[in-house]
Amino acid sequence: MGDPPLSLAQATALMTAPGQVFELEERLVNGVPTTVWKNAPATLRDVFESTSRHGEREFLVYEDERMSFAEHYRRAATLSRRLVEVGVGPGDRVAIASRNLPDWVCAYWGIVIAGAIAVPLNAWWSSDELRYGLADSGARVLFVDDERLDRVRPLWDDLVDLNYAVVLSTGEPVARATDQSGRVRVVSFDDFLGTVDRDATPVDVSIEPDDDATIFYTSGTTGRPKGAVATHRNIVTNLMNLFFIGQRSTLRFGDGPAGAATYPTANLLNIPLFHATGCLAVMVVNAAAGGRLVMMHHFDAGQALAIIERERITAIGGVPTVVMQLLDHPDFERFDTSSVRLVSYGGAPSPPELVRRIAEAFQLAQPGNGYGLTETAAAVALNNGPDYVARPSSCGPAVPVCRVAVVPDGYTEDEPPALINPVQVGELWIKGPNVVRGYWNKPEETARSFTRGWLHTGDVGRIDADGFIYIVDRAKDMIIRGGENVYSIAVEAALFEHPDVADCAVIGIPHPTLGEEVAAVIVVRPGRTVRAEELSTHVRQRLAHFEVPTRYFFRGEPIPRNPQGKVLKTALRESLRAD
Q1: Within 10 A of 278 (CB to CB), how many other CB atoms are there?
Q2: Residue 182, pLDDT above cutoff 60
Q3: pLDDT, position 414
Q4: N or C: which end of the chain has fewer CB within 10 A?
Q5: Are 148 and 123 in contact (CB under 8 A)?
Q6: What are the CA-CA distances from residue 561 to residues 96, 223, 507, 565, 572 (Å)?
Q7: 345-365, pLDDT tens digit by residue?
Q8: Element (H, E) at 460
Q9: Sheet harboring 342-345: ordered strands across?
Q10: Is the dihedral of CA 480, 481, 482, 483 positive or negative?
Q11: Are strands 450-451 and 454-463 parallel, antiparallel or unpaired?
């Protein structure tokens, strides 16, 4: 018999020892003592330069389009120069509003290596939501696909900072969409890019580790999204976090299925790039590691299975519902999925039985479940291999550069309690070099959520004696529908605009494939009547389609609230369940 596998603690100690790649050290980050990866790349510019070593290896695949690392490097490097030529400087915001496309990736890298701030906007947002994101960020240039262009073109007069709208290539001519005569110049991506030299290099700008790199929008208590500002240090820390987790799995479990969380050679990208997970945890990591990204126009389980077979996909994931849709597809057995080595997901609670189903369906694949937030630039913890089989309800231990604490309800200090009781449940606080610096233009929101380097996640959990994290509840009012975050306060605000609605509350209720569906509890004004279909039409005109309620419950009595007027949503769910 061989030696027993290293324990988690043993492997971590070996890998983080002095002189090792993953050595740790203490540094001041924004004035706060912080544990960091000593050998992490300084900025995303360094990560981008490292991609050139992958040469002509295939990087991006979208339908019939294929782009090598070398071609991507040349296009992104050239784009960085074009941005500077049109007046974009360090710290300026450049937005992207598009579905997943190869040129989305080129745009992202061109922006960040020019020292500007990339602002990925939710491609499913309505016109009003896109207006808000563009105006709030003060974006000077917008990279946009045809569908989003139709939504934002009527908004030019409201967007005083915007100068260019660059239409991304979808494989179809975009000349009909271009217009260089108005204040906002609309131009195709290829025309904006111009000639790309074979020896193209990025524009020469100075970028520091704690310079801002991205703004990803999440929700605020006012119902308007808030932009989480991530620095170059935040994002390269996430890269190191995921490299560390993968290499630790290999060290402990070898190169077989249990250690398959190293670096995938072909990743099915079914997560939107406008999510921190899709951009930072999948795209950036694969760019650095030399992995191939295969994109889909939109997720369809049958088409995904065909792509897995054709492209010999080694890694799939996203949110648990994506995996369940693949497993539940009636033609699953018809496709060759033997290439899959890693099935990893996060972003929503996963049923423990999913571990068993993955093991049965993908004979050589290892499941993995992770935890992270937009405010942590993606990954904080990942549970994989035999650890996940042993603890299927856990999202794993935090990476070595992150401190995680459980804070009891009502705690008011800036530092969390030092003692953690394994059975104690409370709000998770996280500290580390991947925690973003705050919210764009929202000092009060920032002060509420960040203290002395600690992020107050709003998620409720516990941590066992071995450091494994268990999420026992989510941020109070958030609904996760098919991997998309739905914030109830925004949906409630839209419903309240209907003249027949006297009171309402929006909650998530279980759904067999989406995880949750959006449910609205409605109290109608006296003497009025309204149908569910009418309310859906009303909300659809104001919000993205995934935010529209699919279930309505009409009450003849008041919605339960606490003395402060806040809806008692736990009690509301219980009453619906009882009914």
Answers
A1: 23
A2: yes
A3: 87
A4: N
A5: yes
A6: 40, 19, 14, 5, 9
A7: 876 556 666 788 888 898 888
A8: strand 454-463
A9: 65-68, 58-62, 292-295, 266-269, 315-318, 342-345, 366-373, 378-384
A10: negative
A11: antiparallel
pLDDT at 160: 94
The size of the chain, in residues, is: 579
- C-beta separation of 385 from 249 below 8 A: yes
- Residue 197: C-alpha distances to residues 65, 202, 234 (Å): 20, 11, 32
Q: Is residue 179 within 8 Å of residue 166, measured between CB atoms?
A: no
Percent of the chain with pLDDT over 70: 91
Higher pLDDT, 559 or 74: 74
Q: Are 260 and 313 in contact (CB under 8 A)?
A: no
Phi, psi values for residue 43, rounded to 5°? -145, 170
Q: Global pTM?
A: 0.84
Here the tokens at position 25 are: 């050290």
How many angstroms separate the CA atoms of 577 and 219, rounded? Answer: 27
- Cα–Cα nearest to 288, from 112, 21, 48, 43: 48
565: left (phi over 0), alpha (psi -120 to 50) or beta: left
pLDDT tens for 266-299 read 999 988 999 999 999 999 999 999 999 999 988 8
Q: Specify the amino acid at residue 229.
A: V
Task: Report the amino acid identity of residue 305.
Answer: L
User: CB of 25 within 8 A of CB of 35?
Assistant: yes
The H or E element spanning position 468 is: strand 468-473
Task: State yes or no: pLDDT of 475 exceeds 70.
Answer: no
Would you state the pLDDT for residue 189? 96
Q: Which domains does the chain have, with CATH numbers?
A: 8-39+230-473 (3.40.50.12780), 69-207 (3.40.50.980), 479-578 (3.30.300.30)
Q: Which pair of tokens denotes residue 88?
A: 């974009």
CB 115 within 8 A of CB 179: no
Q: Provide the 8-state DSSP code for 559.
A: P
Residue 572's nearest CA partner among 534, 533, 521 is 521
**Residue where the block lists tokens 């070898």:** 254
- Kindly report the backbone phi and psi dihedral angles of residue 474, in degrees, each rounded to the nearest multiple of 5, phi listed first: -110, 175
The tokens describing 31, both together, are: 């004035």
